[in-house]
């Protein structure tokens, strides 16, 4: 009994982890904005991308985006590879997302989602990722100055 009380006292002193992520209203806002673009289609560079189906929020994609954003902030770097060399597919697999299609957009320094979304739309490769016809799910995390948007389509 004494050890249980000591353990409970120790656990109660640990910092609480925010496991909720963005609130439901902000998740809906990000999904709605991306789906507005996907629904209309748009020009990505010189290529017009046809309208595609909507994406939905996925917590595993959010968590993988959050982990990558935290790592970039902690080690002050900006890259599509983790510090140990894992690409988006490797990182999603490690997070438990069994993917058929995977993709990632990164941003640095944008003050809000509208600004980072506009920057992604002005970049042909990021824009094409937003309008990728095979992705069905998305998660977005912002940690410090880093934005990470993960896309995926799970294996059936």
What would you note in describing this structure?
With 156 residues, the chain is an alpha+beta fold. The protein has six helices and six strands, in the order ααβββααβααββ. It has helices at 2-13, 24-40, 59-75, 88-95, 113-122, 124-130, and strands at 42-44, 47-49, 56-57, 99-108, 137-143, 146-154. The longest helix has 17 residues, at 24-40. The termini are far apart. Mean pLDDT is 89; it is low at 1-19.
Summarize the structure.
By secondary structure, the protein is of the alpha+beta class.
Distance between the termini: 47 Å
Fraction of residues in H or I helices = 40-55%
Global structural class: alpha+beta
Largest sheet: 4 strands, mixed
Strand content: 15-25%
Q: Strand order, biggest sheet? A: 3-5-6-4
Radius of gyration: 18 Å
- Uncertain spans: 1-19
Shape estimate: globular
- How many helical elements? 6
Number of strands: 6
Element-level helix/strand string: HHEEEHHEHHEE
Average pLDDT, to the nearest integer?
Answer: 89
Question: Could you list some keywords that capture this structure?
Answer:
single chain, 4-stranded mixed β-sheet, 156 residues
